[in-house]
Design a protein that fits this description.
Peroxisomal Thiolase, Chain A, domain 1, hydroxymethylglutaryl-CoA synthase activity, alpha+beta, 14 helices
């Protein structure tokens, strides 16, 4: 319970990520596609992509991320699980129900799934915040999990990726305090979409880039009007990262305003910290904004408690949002050391093996059963499909 006179704050108390156990190096992809490697390393600011086998999906990735941060007390107190994704595995059953079961969360909890392209994790965060405002003792698990998959040799192939970010939302959080200055914008555009009948998305790449940057510009202008904030009020700014170079263009639009040379240097340094993981993983859709936050928190040496961080969330179609948050006292103690070593332990794929994995589809027999080959995964894996029902297990149960 809150002590008398103490103002309740709400935000991120714990955060972690998980990604696929296989990696494709961008230099290898460039060589196979007869492209200049700098087209990827500088043009996209990408070095590698996480690739997932058929035994890994948004459920296994999401559960693996959440497993890193939840203890027994959390599992007893969580009363809501929200999965944000645009890689849904079922048109009816929420993926959050699978997460609830795999993680052993107490039964009297609400489990739902949210969708709006790459934006929905921000909507989930807002919903979680409102719930905790009403129920201060509650804990809400928000998981953003996606697999970005495009066609072989398509324009989007070099911006694939996979991963999940799990966040525990509580009162009096240990890491990040959310504020009440959110401003969203919706516009009906067809820059990126995936109809139910297609396993890969349709993308209007240049148009999508323009929509991202124009949404940032117009929302930022209105946000400034409503809040009075200037870019100089922020110690850092995190962006949705379809690929790091686009987020970098967004930052440059914001710092084109009058800022001191030292503050500009600070913003640029924190931005570089925020893309360290994305450069090695690629696009993880709903989780990419929050992967950027985690990357910055784990790798920055200059962030301090009380610093204000700005966020730009964007989901094609399109919905975007700008908001701010403050770093909590002692946040450094809650942050793990850098995940770079974990990323270095992924199995490197040749382009031939990557393409073979890409085309390996789950094939059902007449009774709706499928038996899957063994691949390395995180703590959880998809073991097969029985009577059209997906069967998940822990690796130790093999």
């Amino acid at each position: 319970m809150l002590k008398e006179g103490k103002i309740m704050t709400i935000g991120i108390d714990k955060i972690a990520f998980a990604t696929g156990q296989y990696v494709l190096k961008m230099d290898d992809l460039a060589d196979a596609r007869k492209e200049d490697p700098e087209k990827f390393s500088k043009g996209l600011m990408l070095d590698a992509l996480s690739i997932t086998p058929p035994t890994e999906d948004i459920i296994t990735l999401g559960a693996s991320a959440a497993e890193k941060i939840l203890n027994d007390e959390d599992k007893e107190k969580i009363d809501m699980v929200i999965l944000a994704t645009e890689s849904s595995i079922d048109q009816s059953k929420a993926g959050a129900v699978y997460l609830h079961s795999l993680l052993g969360i107490q039964p009297f909890a609400r489990s739902i799934e949210m969708k709006e392209a790459c934006y929905s994790a921000t909507a989930a965060l807002n919903y979680a915040k409102l719930h905790v405002e009403k129920h201060p003792e509650s804990r809400v698990l928000v998981v953003a999990s996606d697999i970005a998959k495009y066609g072989i040799k398509s324009s989007g192939e070099s911006t694939q990726g996979s991963g999940a970010v799990a966040m525990l939302i509580t009162s009096n959080p240990s890491i990040l305090i959310l504020t009440d200055d959110n401003l969203a914008q919706t516009r009906d555009v067809m820059d990126f979409w995936r109809p139910n009948y297609s396993t890969t998305p349709f993308v209007n790449g240049m148009y999508s880039t323009k929509q991202y940057l124009d949404s940032l510009k117009t929302t930022w202008r209105e946000y400034q009007k409503q809040t009075g904030f200037k870019i100089s009020d922020f110690a850092a700014f995190c962006f949705h990262i379809p690929f790091p170079k686009l987020a970098f263009k967004g930052l440059k639009k914001l710092i084109s305003e009058t800022v001191s040379a030292s503050h500009k240097e600070q913003l640029l340094k924190h931005f570089q910290d925020s893309i360290i993981y994305s450069r090695q993983i690629g696009n993880i859709y709903t989780g990419s904004l929050y992967l950027g936050l985690l990357s910055m928190l784990e790798n920055s040496q200059t962030l301090r408690a009380g610093d204000t961080i700005g966020f730009f969330s964007y989901g094609s179609g399109a919905v975007c949002e700008i908001f701010s948050a403050r770093l909590a006292e002692g946040f450094q103690k809650q942050i793990q050391t850098s995940h770079i070593k974990e990323l270095d332990n992924r199995i490197q794929l040749t382009v031939f093996d990557y393409e073979k994995l890409f085309f390996e589809e789950i094939e059902l027999d007449a009774k709706g059963n499928a038996y899957l080959d063994f691949y390395r995964t995180g703590p959880f894996y998809l073991s097969g499909i029985k009577n059209h029902q997906r069967i998940y297990k822990r690796v130790k149960d093999k």
